[in-house]
Protein: Tetraspanin-8-like
Organism: Dipteronia dyeriana
Amino acid sequence: MFRLSNNLIGILNVLTFILSIPILCAGVWLSNKGVTECEKFLDTPVIILGVFLMLISLAGLIGACCRVSWLLWTYLLVMFLLIVILFCFTIFAFVVTNKGAGEVVSERGYKEYRLGDYSNWLQKRVSNTKNWNKIRSCLVDSKVCSTFAEKYVAVPAEQFYKQHLSSVQSGCCKPSTDCQFSYVNPTNWTATDVVQTNPDCKTWNNDPKTLCFDCQACKAGLLDQLKRDWKKVAIVNIVFLIVLIIVYSIGCCAFRNSRRDNAYRGKNGA
Ligand SMILES: *[C@@H]1O[C@H](CO)[C@@H](O)[C@H](O)[C@H]1NC(C)=O
């Protein structure tokens, strides 16, 4: 008997199964070859995602094509949980990224970032020393500040002040404007006698490995970047949720079909 929903679920799961193979390979590659701190962040989640996708695709595929009710049931249950989790995460992402923005400073092309402007939940994540040390070494590895230093090394002060900088560059690679340090080059500044109230001014160091990586402004700059990335992820999530709900509905039809078929076969003693 031709069952459209079973075939659709079968085809969809073949596609997701094929997709899970490169994801799994990427995860294994990252865990073996990933040298930088930033790559180490990713390998475990990527492997988990790959294995999860592979198992769930197999359950859906075998469940739909071979009419195995309990496999289809598991598949639908996991899909349902996934929809609920994704929905909650999307709402959470919008709430957490609602607060905070860079502050405009007069006569500067770039903005300054204050940790206090961002949501408490995000602040707590970056204020944890263990978390921050990992993020910090990832930032040092990623060379945001060394490429920044190379790009603007020959730029005179007045021109440097007019540049648009990314939030991470503004927060981590240069001292805060209110410190009123005098400019030598983008990552080399000398302190003046001005009274400083911002604790970040004492944290600043011209050593390329230190710079402002321990500043509150650096954490704020990172959160500003994160905020924008999460907004994008949340929007992609909404599209993904709609697709998942459609697949889930088709899966429900396939499940109903396989139960009906099993009941039919049972009644005829097959
Ligand atoms: C910063 O500039 C000063 C003055 O030109 C120089 O003496 C110092 O070595 C520089 N520091 C670094 C870390 O480049």
Notes: The two ends are 16 Å apart (CA to CA). Residues 103-223 form one domain. The longest helix spans residues 216-267. The chain has a mean pLDDT of 89.
